[in-house]
Amino acid sequence: MGDVGALLAGFETALQPQYLLFAVIGVLLGTAVGVLPGIGPAMTLALLLPLTYSLDPTAAFIMFAGIYYGGMYGGSTTSILLNTPGESASIITALEGNKMAKAGRGAAALATAALGSFVAGTIATVALSLVAPTVAKLAVQLGPPDYVALAVLAFLTVAAMLGSSPARGISSLALGLFISVIGTDSLTGQQRFTLGLPTLGDGIDIVIVAVGFFAVGEALHVASRLRRGPIPLVPITGKWFTKQDFRRSWKPWLRGTVIGFPIGTIPAGGAELGTFLSYATERKLSQHKEQFGHGAIEGVAGPEAANNASAAGVLVPLLTLGLPTGATAAIMLAAFQSYGIQPGPTLFTEQSDLVWALIASLYIGNVLLLVLNLPLVGVWVKVLRLPRPYLYAGILTFAALGVYAVGASVEDLVLLFILGGIGWAMRSFGFPVAPAIVGLILGPIAEEQLRRTLAISQGDPTALVTSPFAAVVYCLVVVAFVGSQWLKRRQARLDAAVFAVAQASTTPGGPTAPVDDSRLASTARASSKEDGQ
Amino acid sequence: MSTIDTSGPATERAARSRGPIPKSELAVAAVLGGLGVFALVDAHTIAVPASASAVGPRAFPYAVGALLVLSAVGLVIALLRGDRGEVEGGEDVDTDGGADWAAVLKLTGSFAALCVLVEPLGWLIAASVMFTGAAWTLGARPWWRALLVALVLNTVVQILFTQLLGVYLPAGPLEGVPGLG
C-alpha cells in the first residue's frame, strides 16, 4: 500500500497554497483557451507550454494538469453553445448538446457535461492511480526491442485511426518522422538533413513544430476560409439540473467512464473513439430513442464522461511507457522532455514525488473544474463572443510570443511561419495533423531503441521480434489494424446517420429556419413535461 | 503491407468522387515523393564515423525516405481509387468555396513585419503592427480600434513576461521605460 502513501504525499505537495494557485491558474487558462472555437486540447497545451518554462517542474506539471483537464472541458461548452458544425471529433458530443441548447435546455446540457466530466474524471483518475504503478512495475522488465514494437504499434494505430484514410495518416506520420530526423544525430554527432544551415543544426524545437502546425496552421486555415456574419451563439436557457435529468444522466456517466478509460489507455487515436462508442451505446439503451438527434440528455452525458475518462486513460501509457497515443499526449511528452524528464517505467521510482503530485493535482483539477466552471459560464460565453478578427490575430500573436520567448530568435519565427504554412496545407488537403506530431516526438525514441537493439544483437535483425513481448505486440498490431478498420466502418455508419439527422433538421434555410425551431419547440415541450413529473 | 490499401471501409468517411483528380492533390503527392527522394539522396551523404555500431546514423533516415516515397505512391493509388482530400471543418471555417489567397498573403505580410521589426523596434511595437495587420485582414474595422487593442494587449504581455516571468523580450526604442525594458 506504498502507493496510497505516495499519493497522500502528492496531495500534501499539491495542496500547498502556491501550488494550489498554479492549479487554479491552469484550470482557468486551460478552460478559457479550450473554450475558444478552433482550439482543441492539443493546441491549448502547445500555446500555453511556454508560459510554464520559468516555473520549477512541480509547479509546471501541476499547472499542466489543470490546463489539460480544463482544455478538455472547455471544448464541450463551445460545442453546446456555438451553432456551427465543428470538426468531426466534436460532432458526436456537440450534436445532442447543441440541439438541447436550441430547444431551451442549454443549462441542463452544460450541467450534465460538467457533472459527467467530474464523475468520470474522478473515477478515471482513481483507476489511473491504481493501474499506472502496476504497469510501471511490469514495464521495468521491457528491453529495447519491446520499445521498438510499442512505437511501431503507436505509429500504425495513430496513422490508421486518425484522418479520413490510412494513406493520408501514414503520409502525415512520415512527414513528422522526417522533421524529427533533422538536426544532429544524438549517438554519433553527425548532421542530418540540415542543408548546412546552422539554425537546423540542433534540430527543430518540438514547441515550434507543435505551435506552427496547430496554432499558425489553424489561423491561416481560418483566415483563408473565414465564416462571415454574426456569431451564432445559442443563449443559455432552461432549468439547470432537475431530478429527472439526474435520473437520466447518472448511468450514462458511469457507462461513459467504463468505455472511455480503457480506450484512452490503448493507442486508438485518443478520445474520439470513446465518445462515439458511448453515444452508440446510449442510443441503443435509451428509453427515449426518439429524442436522439433532437437533444437527448443521455447523448451529452455519456460522450462527455467518456471524453474525460479517456483523458485520464491516456496518461497510463504516457507516464509508464513514455508512449503518446495522440497529439495531446505527444505534447505532454514534449513538456516532460523540456524539463529533462523522460517518462517511462523508471519515472515512478526516480521522480516519484513529481508523478504523484501530478496525479494528485488531477484530482484537485477535477474539483476545481466543477466548482469554477458552472458559476463562470457567463465568462465563457463572453469568450465565445470574441470577434473573430481579434481572436485569430491574438492566436497568431501568442503563437509568435511563445516561440520567441523560448530563444529570442527571429529565425525561429520564420521557421514557425513556414511550419504554419505546412499545417495550413495539411488542413486544406485533408491530412490529419496529429500523426505528424506523434511521429515527430516518438521518432527519435524509436530510432534510439532500434539502434540499441541492433547494437546489442550485433546487427542481427531477428532480435527485434524474438522478445516474447515484442512478438505479442506485433500480433496486436495486426489485430489493432483489423479492429480499427471495423470500428471505422461502424463510426462511418454512425457519422452518416448523425449527418442525415443534422441535415434533415437544418437544411431548410439554415440552422435557424422556422421549420427547425417549431420541431425543436415541440421536443422542448415534451421534455419540459417530463421534467414536471 | 496493407496500410495503403484504400479499398477498405476506411475511406467511406473520405470524400469519394469519380471525377478527374484535381492537379493540386497530385502536386501534394509529388511534393511528398520529392521530399522522400531528397531524404534518400541526402541520407547517403551523412558521414558515418568509424565508431558507429551496426546501425549508424544513416539507417533511420533511409527508412524515413522510403516511407515518404511509399506514402506518396499510396496517395496516388488512393486518388486513383476516388479518395479526395476534404477541407478540414471547424467552428469558424466555411468549407464551401475556395481559399482566400489575398487574406493569406496579407497575413504573411503582417507576420513578416513582425520578423523584421521585432529586433530594431522591440516586441511591443512589432507585435502590435502584426496584430493590427492580421485583425484588419480578417475584417476588423476601423483599423485604429484594432491598433488600440493590439497596443493594450502587447503592453500587458511585455510587462508580464519581462517583469513577472523573467523572460527576455526586446524593448527597442522603449528601452529604459519603467516596466517595459
From TrEMBL, chain A:
Transmembrane helix among keywords: yes
- The chain positions of domain DUF112 read 20-437
- Where does the record place the region Disordered? 506-533
The UniProt record lists the keyword RNA-binding: no
- What are the UniProt keywords, alphabetically? Membrane, Transmembrane, Transmembrane helix
Membrane-crossing segments per the record: 19-39, 59-82, 103-127, 147-163, 170-188, 200-220, 314-336, 356-377, 389-407, 413-442, 463-487
The record, for InterPro entries, names:
DUF112_TM
Determine the domain of life of the protein's source: Bacteria
Name recorded for this polypeptide? Putative tricarboxylic transport membrane protein
Q: What is the lineage of its organism?
A: Bacteria, Bacillati, Actinomycetota, Actinomycetes, Kineosporiales
TrEMBL record, chain B:
Q: Which residue positions does the secretion signal occupy? A: none
Q: Which residues form the DUF1468 domain?
A: 28-170
Name the coiled-coil region(s): none
Transmembrane domains' residue ranges: 26-47, 59-80, 111-136, 142-161
User: Which Pfam families does the entry mention?
Assistant: TctB
Q: Which UniProt keywords apply?
A: Membrane, Transmembrane, Transmembrane helix
Asked if Ribosomal protein is a keyword of the record, the answer is no
Q: Mind telling me which InterPro entries this protein's record contains?
A: DUF1468
| Protein name in the entry | Putative tricarboxylic transport membrane protein
**Annotated organism of origin:** Quadrisphaera granulorum
Q: What is the lineage of its organism?
A: Bacteria, Bacillati, Actinomycetota, Actinomycetes, Kineosporiales
